Amino acid sequence: MGSLGPFEILAILLVVLLLFGAKRIPEIARGLGKGIREFKDATNDIKQELNVDPPRQQPPRQIHQSPQTSAPVQAQPSQPVASEAAAPPQPAPESPADPQSQA
């Protein structure tokens, strides 16, 4: 009396077919599938809300000073800014060797 055999399953399917009809069974299955999907989505949303960690606040970065100089040491950017990367390098202005020779 524990499990259903193939004859019992076939009898149940036949009764369901007679009660609801062949046109109604796909509609019922479609509605049941949508309901299960919405339930799963809602439970996943709740799980995500419960598992989300609050954003951690990072302490402000301190600028270290070297003992020989009084100017703060600043970190250099690791990658150039997009406008710097696209612009060609500018040549250094030429300085005359003897400023009085051109005057």
List the helices and strands and how they pair.
Blueprint: H1 6-20, H2 24-51, H3 82-86
Family: Belongs to the TatA/E family.
Function: Part of the twin-arginine translocation (Tat) system that transports large folded proteins containing a characteristic twin-arginine motif in their signal peptide across membranes. TatA could form the protein-conducting channel of the Tat system.
Subunit structure: Forms a complex with TatC.
Main sheet characteristics: none
Share of residues in strands: under 5%
Structural class: mainly alpha
User: Which shape, going by the Cα principal axes?
Assistant: elongated
- Low-confidence stretches are none
Distance between the termini: 116 Å
Task: Tell me, rounded to a whole number, the average pLDDT.
Answer: 75
- Radius of gyration over alpha carbons? 38 Å
**Total of DSSP H or I helical runs spanning 4+ residues:** 3
Work out the number of β strands: 0
Q: Helices and strands, in N-to-C order? A: HHH
Helicity, as a percent range:
40-55%
Subunit structure: Forms a complex with TatC.
Region (Disordered): 45-103
GO molecular function: protein transmembrane transporter activity
Function: Part of the twin-arginine translocation (Tat) system that transports large folded proteins containing a characteristic twin-arginine motif in their signal peptide across membranes. TatA could form the protein-conducting channel of the Tat system.
